[in-house]
Every structure is written in C-alpha cells, then in structure tokens.
Amino acid sequence: MAQVVRFYETGGPEVLRFEEVEVGDPGPGEVRLRHVAVGLNYADTYFRNGTYPIPMPNGMGVEAAGIVAAVGEGVSHVAVGDRVTYTGFLNTLGAYSTERLISAAPLIKLPESISFETAAAMTMRGLTSAYLMRRIHDFKPGDSILLHAAAGGVGLIVSQWAKLLGLKVIGTVSSDAKAEVARTHGCDHVINYSHEDVAKRVRELTDNVGVNVVFDSVGQSTFMGSLDSLKRRGLMVCVGTASGPIPAFNPALLAMKGSLFMTRPALADYIADPAEKADLAGELFDLVGSGRIKIEINQHYSLQDAVQAHRDLESRKTTGSSIFVI
C-alpha cells in the first residue's frame, strides 16, 4: 500500500488527509514511480484553497523525484531503475505520495550529480528560475532586477543565477534574518518591506532610474510598488500571487508609468516543448551539479506533516526550499 495526501474539499491546511491506497500496475504510457523525496511549493496551496480549481477529491503536489519501479506499454525514454524527477501542473498532481502511477511524459532523467532530495527541492523552482533568466528577457551584464521574496526557493536560485549573468540584484524580504540569507546568495542590496518603502528605496539605489525587470511573486500587496520601481520601458514579470490576486487595472496605467511591459508567465508554457525543457533542465543541472548554484533545503517534513508544512509555508516561516522525505 502507498501512503498519500489527498483532499476532498478546498480550504485551509486542515483539509489535507493522510491515507493509504493501492497503486496498481502502469497502463500504456505510464510508469509506477517510487518516490524518494517530494517538493513543497507555494503553488500547492493554490490547488488546496481553490485558487486553481480542480475536480474533487484529488491528490496534492506536482513535483517529486524517485526511481522507476515499473513501466507500461509504449514507454521508451525511461526504464525500470532510472533515477528521475518531474514537475508540471494538472498532469502531475498527486506527488504527495510514497508511490504512484504517472504519465511517463513529464519525467526527466537525473544525472548522478543531482541527489533525489536536491531534485525534489529544485525541479519546479529551478526550471522556473531557468526560464526567468534565459527566456523572459535578453539580460546583459550590468542590468538590474528587483526580486521579491528573495529568500524563498525561487528567489535564492534566481539571485545566484543573476549574479552569474553579471546582473545587479535588489531583493525584498520580510525580516532581518531573511535579509541575511538573501545577501549570502547574491543580492547586492536587500529591502525589508516590513519597514521600508520598496519603490522609494529602489529609486535611491538606482539613481532614480529604476530597474530593468521586476520579478514579483507576491502580487496584490506589491503590485503598485513594483511598477513604480521600474525604469522607463521596463518589464514587470508577475510570477505569483502569494498575497492575493493583482487587482484589475486599466492598461493605460502602464503607459502612465513609463510605457512599461508586463507578462504573467507559467512554467508549463516554457517546458511544453520537450527540446526546450531538455535545454533548460540541462543548463540547470549543470549549474547545480558543478556547485555554481547551491540549492538550500531548509525544511524537511514527513508526508504525515503536510498540514503543518502548509501552515509554515503560508505564514512565511520558511526560507529556501522545503521537501517531504519519504
């Protein structure tokens, strides 16, 4: 029997249930995967609270790493015994489990240089960071970015990657402890938004010019400050809504604030093409495997602790990446 976390209604962390289920044999195009480590992502809370509507009941989690235990008919790019990782969206729901059936399509083979724990902590965050750094904007050395949630899982990877590209990184955090974490991972300047005006401070740090790009994973509470932090014709990248959805606005606002550009990207659209996914994963694995980017796993949970894990995540108690260890 496999152990899984499921939920039967949307709501707070308390709706998560720890259960045992029979996995069965893989069908055509599927594999049975034995998990070693499972990722905890803020996106998980969006499924749980109904922000991302899905049929009920359902499994929780979209990212994990493990070993292929059995393959179904037609599966050729992975084999029994392969070390793999995966991330996705609706096609990978159910990652909070010790063992599962899953389509073979999202699976990515892991190089020996990447542990299961590291893979579970970084596949979604790392591929997100990869497309933010390599696909969203044509960065040049000396460009500047404002990075919200700089001490979070994506933030720590993006800040390190940005420094490898020669960028100036201004990060925002909610506490002095997180500020120190952000500094040690590449942020040139850190703004504690609990008591500092972000846009005002960004203007001071950029000689009143503003930054080239803002990566905003917070949403509602930071949106206007993010726009006010951009230089003329800068790019606003909305990558999350941790504080709530961005309020409706007239697009003329972008013209009024300097002919700004704005995008709301999704990882799924940057890994839909297998060749592009392979390119992004290859570069990510190379940077992490060589030690040029370090993955910080600062919280470890068991699947039985899923409720507490979600509470910690939503109360901003976590830094870096969090995983469930099987």
Automatic annotation (TrEMBL):
Gene3D superfamilies: Medium-chain alcohol dehydrogenases, catalytic domain, NAD(P)-binding Rossmann-like Domain. It comes from the Bacteria. SUPFAM superfamilies: GroES-like, NAD(P)-binding Rossmann-fold domains. It catalyses: 2 a quinone + NADPH + H(+) = 2 a 1,4-benzosemiquinone + NADP(+). Keywords: NADP, Oxidoreductase. GO terms for cellular component: cytosol. InterPro entries: ADH-like_C, ADH-like_N, ER, GroES-like_sf, NAD(P)-bd_dom_sf, QOR-like, Quin_OxRdtase/zeta-crystal_CS. The keyword NADP applies. Its EC number is 1.6.5.5. It is an enzyme of class 1 (oxidoreductase). One of its GO terms (molecular function) is quinone reductase (NADPH) activity. Residues 11-324 form the Enoyl reductase (ER) domain. The keyword NADP applies. Belongs to the zinc-containing alcohol dehydrogenase family. Quinone oxidoreductase subfamily. NCBIfam families: PRK10754.1 (NF008024). This is NADPH:quinone reductase. The lineage of its organism: Bacteria, Pseudomonadati, Pseudomonadota, Gammaproteobacteria, Pseudomonadales.
